[in-house]
Design goal:
36 helices; single chain; Rossmann fold; seven-stranded parallel sheet; alpha/beta; 45% helix
Length: 967
Amino acid sequence: MDTFLKELATYYYNTYQTKITDFCFVFPGRRACLFFKEHLKKMVSEPIWAPKTLTINEFIQDFSTIPVADKLTLVFELYQVYEDIYKTGVSFDDFLPWGEIILNDFDDIDKYRADAKQVYTNLLAIKEIEDDYSFLSEDQIKVIKSFWASFNPNKLSEHQTDFVKIWEKLDDVYEEFNKRLRLKNICYEGQIYKTIANNIDNKEPLNIKHPKIIFVAFNALNRCEEKLFHHLRITDKADFIWDYTPWLLNANQIKKSMHETPTRAEAVHFMEDNLINFPAPSNWKFPENKTLPNIEITSVASSTTQTQVINQFLKNIDSDSFDSKNNIKATETAVILTDENMLLPVLHGIPKEEKSINITMGYPMKNTPAYGLIELIFELQKNCRKTKQGKTWFYFRNVLPILTHQYLEPLDSKTHQKLAKDIVSKNKTYIEASELQCTHLLTSIFKYIDSSENLSEYLNHILFTVYQSFKTLTAVDTSIEKEFIYQSYLLVNHISDLLKNLSISIKNDTWIKLYKRSAEMQSIPFSGEPLKGLQVMGILETRALDFENLVVLNMNEGVFPQTGATNSLIPYVLRNAFNLPTIEHQDAIFAYYFYRLIHRAKNVRLLYNSAAQGMQSGEMSRFLFQLKYEYPRDKLKFSTVSEDLNISNTPTFFVEKDEKVMNTLSAYLLPNTKKLSPSALSTYFECPMRFYYKYVTKAHEPDEVTEDIDPRIFGTLFHEAIEKLYLNLLNQEIKSEHIDLILKDKKKIDAILHESFEEYFTHTIDNSDFKDIQGQNVLIFDIIKKYIIQFLKAEKENAPFTILGLEKVVNAEFKINSSTIVNLGGTIDRLDGKDGSIRVIDYKTGAGDDKFSNIEDLFKQEKHKKLKAIFQTLLYSSILQENEKSPQTYIPGVVWVKKIFTSNDYSLKKGPARGKAETLTLNMVQDEFKDTLYTHLEDLFNANVAFQQTTHIDNCKNCSYANICGK
């Protein structure tokens, strides 16, 4: 394949031979330099010194002895100047985003040779505009006047007034900022560009070190670059080699009529002027592709589906594209990412057979696990507490993610898992530091950092320890992870050094914001062998490079090209008037990148995500629409790739009762003593498969720390409090006077509730050091107390009665057939005697029905959930009757806690849906209830009846086993 750089190397070597050694070739990016040298190396037959190859930034900076400072340093310096002039008192972290915008504006002003004073002119001096801007054209003056018109001093809004206050002094900021940088002997890039252009105007020598400079494959030039190029062309010191898309350039010459001015295509917006102002050598032959590439535009259902397309595309590449070692040739195939966030998914999508992959782009630091770890550490420090006793406590929501982080957990899995399990099992919402400091790494993490000066040392120690620990993990490749950690380490050091040099003292929160903002501007550079294998690169790295096979991802509008101009305080109309870059400028550059990239290729696959996700509309890029309507039909193909989804109905799932299952079930049968509880039977009636998972396989859902009171714990706390209030009144008649005494003793109620809370939460509510950590549970405490008081008032209405048992454990043997005896049992919340009957009462904090029509409904999958309380109290009544020798009247009852403010009736009802209902007693339904129960128990213990999924889909809601079951 005759690439642009190969032709360039051929032309200059054939024309100048060994003289080329003294030349300097200037390219838009570093990658082009490397490929150019490789092509040149293949041409020479004898050793020669390689010519100098530089990027444009390196070439410009070579004119200056003053170093270009990094952006963070520049924004710090700008902040000092800004505060000296405006005296706003704004913090640095609040100024940081504004500082970046102002700095970018200053850079544009210098590179495009605009006069800062005229750009930031005083808004009240508009009448003198013709004199101040005499160098402007009438159209430019008209545009500027139209902008100022919206700032009528008599009609300014509040926001306009604030803007004017800032605007009027930005010229002073510009001047003072430049002075400050000169004193510190540092600069920003635009200053160097401006100095070079000014030196040319002042006829000062530039001290060009090479006899000839060759500028290769540039496109949009700023005013300073134009000035430099003109100077070098006039002095015959430079050649200009342009790379462009010929068919678009030729299309510009087509006019529909003699009176019509031809439309200029975006992709060659700057190129026409470049070719006229800076023509290439007369004998240079532009390497034009004789045939147009075959292009396929593919719609994908999601961003990740693109990786499947890449995989297939790479597997289908012609064998000619591979070298002798079966690696893709470096100049043959490239995967182009318009969205850098797709880098890791793409790397996973490349076929495993492709061993040599060269990544020529950065990966956003904020997307790395190392950044995620540092964020977790920041949150840990923000939420930790130091008590008056000098103890440090950490919040469990910050501790658990750190213990399980992908970088930390593998380093000492057993210790981390043990700590996490202990936190969950003991329901610790706050953990004292000494409990966590059981290894060197954890000791370095779980300590309180009281100042920002110590924060950088703290983070660096953690990162260094993790980096060193990775060296022991020989079983896996951790090179990428180590690079992520190393770059994070460098950034922390850089911020620390910067703060020390500037003698600025900031709070921890400000340090954290500074780190996060800096990380957003950072990319992790990947290194590799650039002249081997598959090339994975961003769109900027493609300049001057050619590939036969191309896959370009995320060709969506808003991604490529990006929508919206770069943030700027200089409004669009003023940017346009002063010839500063605008959104149209940006669009033209993106168009150039795209069409230049594809015009020498043979096979091009352009992918776009058709799904609307977040801010992405699912619309394909305007460049794809241009191809659709302007590209030859025989060279363009459209396709759609969707994810492989199985939308067939989930097959019915069941589990046969093999010998192992039956052995587990036999534990509930005599002569064994394990009790089958009413709750377990309720689970079986709602869904046999859930019963299988929970009680046969013992697949219990994992515990988690309960910071707030969920309904389950709410009910438990209510139960325990009532039990403790009545404990001293067992087996004695309780009258209304007894209830009054309990109601009056509010301290006792509080003490009992405190005691119950302490069993579920690690810290007492009245502990002065940790009063704040209970959060909304303090409110829950008061709510439960109100429910208890209202319950006691209802009890007073039901008095007198005799408490016969609290949390009473019962069981009985039920012979369901000639060979099977089942042991049923559980814990009755309360047993009391009233009016000669025994009430079997259950406390329910949830919802349910207190009435049913027939016994069979209690066992039906679709009805059991609402009738669960009735079933369970009837079963408890049956167990009690089975154990009693003398006949008793058992009355099942439920205390519906949610209804306690509206009803003090605990009884249950049986009757038709709309007819008169009777108060339920066991005697009323005893025989029918037992017969139906025995039928279902026979099925449960029958080896020939498999465990089936529920037929009632509502029972699957909130089921812990739904993902396993697949119902």
